[in-house]
Fold each of these.
Amino acid sequence: MTIEYDRIVRTSLSRQVAESIRAAILDGRLGVDQRLPDEIELARRFKVSRPTVREALKRLAAQNLIRSQRGPSGGTFVDLPSLESVSRTIEGATTLLIGMGAFSVEEIVLSRMETETLACRLAAANRTQRDLDAMEAEIAVEREATLSDEGFCASDVRFHRAVVDATANGPLKLMMYTVIESFIPITNMIIVEDRERRRAAESHARITQAIAARDGEGAAALMRRHLEGMRGILEQALAQRAARFASTTEDALTASGAGASTPRLLDGLG
Amino acid sequence: MTIEYDRIVRTSLSRQVAESIRAAILDGRLGVDQRLPDEIELARRFKVSRPTVREALKRLAAQNLIRSQRGPSGGTFVDLPSLESVSRTIEGATTLLIGMGAFSVEEIVLSRMETETLACRLAAANRTQRDLDAMEAEIAVEREATLSDEGFCASDVRFHRAVVDATANGPLKLMMYTVIESFIPITNMIIVEDRERRRAAESHARITQAIAARDGEGAAALMRRHLEGMRGILEQALAQRAARFASTTEDALTASGAGASTPRLLDGLG
DNA sequence: CCATGGAAAAGGTATGACAAATATAAGTTT
DNA sequence: AAACTTATATTTGTCATACCTTTTCCATGG
């Protein structure tokens, strides 16, 4: 005969507390901008110590679920996230997967092609003058000869975001930021030749024209061609990054001895 | 004359430590499954106290970037996330946005229509027998008359996921899990009538047939019609959820007095 | 050879104190 | 009286230290 033992709690207290508060937020028992009890009170309610409560709060803060402020009338507040903060969270998570080589170049290029051509079609239907202005501003930036590589890539990302923004579809924007943003760290490492740059800028210009003319199919076709041209560049970038991950050194956190000069932190890893 | 003061650090130490370690992981200076120094050593390296280090580690743990284990040969390890864990993170973030009513029903329906028809086309091209089996398994579940509402909705989600899986495109899967998964909490609240259920199951069956026959366009058209039918249900669900959020009570964290019976926690919110 | 038990190592929790920020109230000066 | 300054209280942020719990591994004894 087997005895029913007490179910032993195997998750840490801070995790349980975090889950508990998180559930309260998700269920709507805690509304936006509502103030939580202060940490000492939370500790009393949950019957744990303050450090434990704080660890729980940090977990939630990492998910942008809460924000804290010192002082009286300060405290911890429910901080329901904007599209931007969620987008950043997603970007961080995706960047890892891509950086690890979880996806092949073919997959990445295909997914971008399919989704961005879709975005082109919707953008052509819904774009406003503001959207067109945003796109053209980026094209102007990209035509600057003095622009750094990072600057060019950042502008490229902003252009593609602008196209997605023009669809005027929130969920779609959210989804596509995932794919677009997560290429920043990769493409940043690539030296974009001057010739390539000009070609990209001209592609962007043509796409913008088509969207301005409400020609969704035309814009989609141009976008497809544009991304096709990026395939080679991406292949190069991913290969470089993979190589770097392969040669991971042993002791990456060696403290850089100096220390005294820097105000406080910012060192700690070699 | 204005003096250049030392740049005051405005972010908390635990945040800085977390960022520092996070950067090391993202840069590849810390490889997967690599062990970090123990907490006391980290505290020494960063010149902060152990609780501060622990708060930083909890931040990272919340992002599934690290995992911890007790005992000797335990410690903190880099835990680069799988597609599933990233997907879960994204789901949590998006669920909030949707729950808050950040998106309109039109936006949601349109985004699902556009992306899922896209998935149908790719699925028809790339599906394997396994994918078809997965879809048909869900259809079989949905035809069970005794299934609970939650069970039906969960199966619905799994079916749509199966379609996306059949595209064999990682980035696309990641993007679409975002949208599909985040509707679970909403659709779960809706009582699906028996008639509706049967209609959905039959839609799923026809879509599966078209994908099996490599008929991408046909599958896409069927999917579009299927989602069109869901528009009304979604409208109802979102209205209900919005109402619940509006009537947020004041004191949602009131401790349930009992306490002695529960092993340790699990209470704390009424 | 296997099982049992006990150290040791590492994360988990608790306590208590102090530091820093900041809103509010009180007091002082103009 | 108004405006500025100062005190003060509140709340998060940080620190130091101790102890508990889990897990590994080795030594010891059967």
Note: Chain B has two domains: 13-78, 84-244.
Amino acid sequence: MAKQRANIRDVAKESGVSLTTVSLIINKNDQRISEPTRQRVLDAIEKLSYTPSRLARGLPNRRANTLAILVPQLQNAFADVYFGELISGIYEEAAARGFRILLEVARRDYIKRREYMQLLEDCSVDGIFFLGATEEHKFLKEFDASDRPLLVVNNHFSQWDLHHVVCDYAAAGRDAADHLIELGHTRIAHISGPNDVVLTTRELTDAFVGRLAEHGVRLSKSMIVGGEFQVETAKLACDELLERDPDLTAIFCANDKMALGAYQSLRAQSKQPGKDVSIIGCDDIPVAALSDPPMTTVRMNFFEVGAESCRQMLKLIETKSMDGRINKRIPVELVRRASTAPIR
Amino acid sequence: MAKQRANIRDVAKESGVSLTTVSLIINKNDQRISEPTRQRVLDAIEKLSYTPSRLARGLPNRRANTLAILVPQLQNAFADVYFGELISGIYEEAAARGFRILLEVARRDYIKRREYMQLLEDCSVDGIFFLGATEEHKFLKEFDASDRPLLVVNNHFSQWDLHHVVCDYAAAGRDAADHLIELGHTRIAHISGPNDVVLTTRELTDAFVGRLAEHGVRLSKSMIVGGEFQVETAKLACDELLERDPDLTAIFCANDKMALGAYQSLRAQSKQPGKDVSIIGCDDIPVAALSDPPMTTVRMNFFEVGAESCRQMLKLIETKSMDGRINKRIPVELVRRASTAPIR
DNA sequence: GATTCGCAGTAAAATGTTTTACTGGAACGG
DNA sequence: CCGTTCCAGTAAAACATTTTACTGCGAATC
């Protein structure tokens, strides 16, 4: 009971080789170690139930083998399916590669103290994922064209040169437009996201409106209302749209939550979603399939966005190559359910 | 441009003192350092924009200044208000004390490989919070009466001797019973949680039934149905209860989600929750106040449970005193809203 | 027979802290 | 004037690894 915990020196002594040899074996860069020696060392590791210290390991090469997920301070950010799926995707991929995940909340004073930088500078973390970024997060400027490993997940920016991985929102807008056109709709409305601060939802809107125009359907500005991505605001938005055009036949909502708000609004006016008015959502969150009627929507595989973000981040860290920024688009897919129907 | 990053040695050289002095100043155990020296060192730190490396700091005393949150692998565990609030509470308190939070998911193979132990053994983490624990998590036995810093958040176990911080579920059961009695109800039912695997919800049920009995109201076994904490299963449970006793006047649900399920069930049978049948929930999640009718419920401050868990954990780590287990109960509070009414 | 090469492994430096035990000198009481 | 105490700080060990440059040796090559 001399020692609490075996270290690499103990293993070396036990198996009669040098530290270096043990280290090489642990790190699997061991072409040059012969099989018998290798086996002896592995036995010693087993016997002493040795685990290399992550702390000490990170020290020489300044690697923590840890990644941070930074989320904005929202009302229960951790209780949102959207963040939940992104985080799961990142986690899964990171865990598979032996990386740990650190959780960080970008509160006001967190940003003011530049703690995200500390994280990188004190070697706590090898890279940072930023979820839920908007154009109001001015501190991102610090990463503009910098070689600091920060990756924006599911949003992107034109004013700053950053790494990002995003769903193909333009394709989503086009898919939604094509679907409604195919069903014969012409009196169409759109409940958008916060277009003033999020580029992706602007792209969604632009692509949707643009594609409708290509098909000769004009969507006037007044039939586009912003909904802040929440059920309640979307309900109000939908009320407003129905007042402006009581005969509209289809609404494209920038996310599924807002589509549920539209359902509520319609019902309150004794209209049936999917029959009287076609509703198409965006995201395909789990409740979309379970809603009544089951929702037609554009599936955005957020889990995959998270996973791909993580793969890209790891590549970034390994290679340290700064030739160009990461700029990956994840494909989307229209899911036809019962909330859209041919025009009568 | 000789160096990338200043270290403590650079600071020492710059300010003409020894490493030790700098270290003492950084760690604020610096009674013995004179003010002028202190100032000189702080200036040097500023000038070189020096940040101590967390990795190197942890090495000598085997402290990572990091805590892990372990959650079970559930359908979108990260997208649940319950976990969200617990995590927020833990995070807040940890951040205030300079601790980082690591996220870990207890998947099947994660448990099999005992990675939670690795976490402690390789010094990645100074302590582990386990959320969403049930009696099916047999691996907890490993921490039974052990001095490993694992803390069970918002559940507890009688079969294993572990640290825990829990809401006072017994008090919640009593409060709910008292409230219904006060309103004159006698035909009462209960939709319970997964009583087979979670002790806290058994306590809730027992306290509720016990208190009713004290007031002379007998709740038969058949009027208690389990609901697995989900909206859908609770709806079915409620259907069943209404079939068994169409004249029941009140239902106590073991959480708010299930109370919402009960709302649905009642409405489907053209009964008005809060008028025809009083419903009382448990948790006071945000939607409870927003539901229709606003829900009477027992508030469980999960944020506070998380925060207190973290405080206890830090105490555990600091003192390393194993005289007794942590066993803290967080008080609950009845919130009267419109889903309960005096019997007619 | 000298030179080169590859093999299997090692010595030692480097990574950046904390902490314990020490030191030289000044003040101070007897 | 001597011993003690205090002050302000320091030297050096410890923490656990990775990595670079090296070494001895036998085999192949010229």
Note: The domain at 169-299 of chain B is CATH 3.40.50.2300 (Rossmann fold).
Amino acid sequence: MSETLTLHVAIERILADAGRSLTTREIADAVNAHGLYARADGQPVPTSQVSARLRKYPALFNKVGNQMSLVVNAGLRPATSPRTQQPPQTRRPNNGTIPDPVSGNMSIDSAALLNDLNYRLAGDVVNLVPEQPGVYAIRVVDVAVLPEPFRVHAERRNDRLIYIGEAKISLRKRLGQELWATGHGTFFRSIGAVIGHRPMRGSLAGMANKHNYTFAPAVEVAIIRWINLNLEVSWLAFDREVHETEVRLIHEFGPLLNLSGNPRKLPELSVVREELPTISCSG
DNA sequence: CGGTCGATTCTTGCGAAACT
DNA sequence: AGTTTCGCAAGAATCGACCG
């Protein structure tokens, strides 16, 4: 093993491989021995850093005495996740909430967001998306349309879901940015890069924000056409705890192209995303 | 009204003090 | 001595105000 990961992902992998609980000393030694994580200064990972990271991710790690273990069902999940085996569900109205069976309070119906029956082809929803806050999910019609190495990852996961996002003000405006390039949607830049397009050379020269690169107009049209034909969208409109819900869903389902907060984020996507500003800043 | 771009928020990494 | 916790810095991700 010689790949480098973020520290908590490296810890997760060590615990998964061990198949038992370990002390912070054992974890630190294993991470250093396998070269799973490289500090900026080249020094080995101290136990203090392992401890700090374990504490920061209570959803991923259990601590009993000085023994650390993985939370069951957290982090990396097998290719055949339970949700791919769920029986078909009936379409529900996308109002985003259902009564909690225990408390009786209204909670977010995340199952409806990922229900097959609520996905629609991107090219068909332009006038259907509501002007309300909420969360949205994007998936591919067929994983075969994804280039390598993303297709292999999607097939291995047996999952077509590629992105979950939030709209604090308006799903229509946000999805406009993400799918039809009416703004600097993060997803639009990611999918453009994933399917092989590159930004205009020098498009960010002299600008303060080096992440908001743009594609050439003709490339933008090609990306939008690809999106309309190959992606499906589902959304839930609600106005309470939108961000908390998005964070929870990303963590739970690990979409292929989400980076932030995604325990299953792809290193390949980070590499692609990092390359683009470099290109667009050069003159 | 659409698109640009900067403000804000979040994540990651680390050092050091406090604690066991 | 080893471990835990706190707090800060830097960079990345995201959203929406505002300008043309």
Note: The first helix of chain A runs from residue 7 to 18.
Amino acid sequence: MNSIDWDQALRGLGKKSTPQRKALLTALALQDKPASVEDIFVEVRDHHKTSLSTVYRNLEWLFAQGLINKQGFPGEKARYSLKREHHEHTLVCIDCQKIVAITGCPLDSYAAEVGRRENFVVVDHRMEMYGYCQQCSHTRGRV
Amino acid sequence: MNSIDWDQALRGLGKKSTPQRKALLTALALQDKPASVEDIFVEVRDHHKTSLSTVYRNLEWLFAQGLINKQGFPGEKARYSLKREHHEHTLVCIDCQKIVAITGCPLDSYAAEVGRRENFVVVDHRMEMYGYCQQCSHTRGRV
DNA sequence: ATAAGAATAGGAATGATTTGCATTTATTAT
DNA sequence: ATAATAAATGCAAATCATTCCTATTCTTAT
């Protein structure tokens, strides 16, 4: 929302607070759905001189910190989104790419069970659902 | 298991039954976990002259047909696996990349519920769990 | 204000995947 | 069986997202 928050957040993580980083975080906060690197780059560049490599580097770092989500198939462009307070997954329309956030993930207890069974310390999971949104179902003659 | 099955399957789908395709399907059937294109290529090449592009082309086609799974993050190499009778997901070790197949997915009824709530026709989902396998947990001093 | 280290911009490099095309092969009709 | 023909293959070149390199510019602590 404002750059002061980002300043503090970045310093707290031992990183310098650069205009590019703040603009990047602001750009992410503006998105209502996972955005491609290109989208984010364009958004950041509207406010500050920047380069694609800077955007990539910072996104990757934010992802490693667990502050943002990264999703997509291999061979596709990655899409990033800020992590919300509540653990969230997405529902993606196969036709129009519309993305809806879904809440209420049933996987945590399952993760614990699987970890026990397989002798893993399960620390995270990724889940995405695919289908057709209402409009696209109609267009394609689906119910 | 045998090439006769693949012959029939391929013809039924309107495709020519080539040695490369049969070897590819056999290679996939041999894997007990999702394999990289490179792995599959090497396996196929043990039995027939082939090329990476042929492997790529056929894997992509099989995936489009819904006969195999494709998984991995963007920026990672894709991994493919034959679809089994039982819906399957994977558990991946963050350190050593060991992959374990896990069965018993609790997401189907959840998918139906989400679809109803969001007015989507949910047709598929992807889910992968991440953690540390027993060895790597020890190495890293984790419990 | 300055020094020291971190971060950036820009471009080159990488590497998985895709594509173009000439050749080979599996199918179908003869 | 053979020839015709459309599809599939192999190889090399192209693509394209992402990563890497490094000289220069900023941030921050002093």
Note: The interface with chain B takes residues 70-79, 91, 93-94, 100, 102, 106-107, 110-111, 114-115, 117-134, 137, 142-143 of chain A (CB under 8 Å).
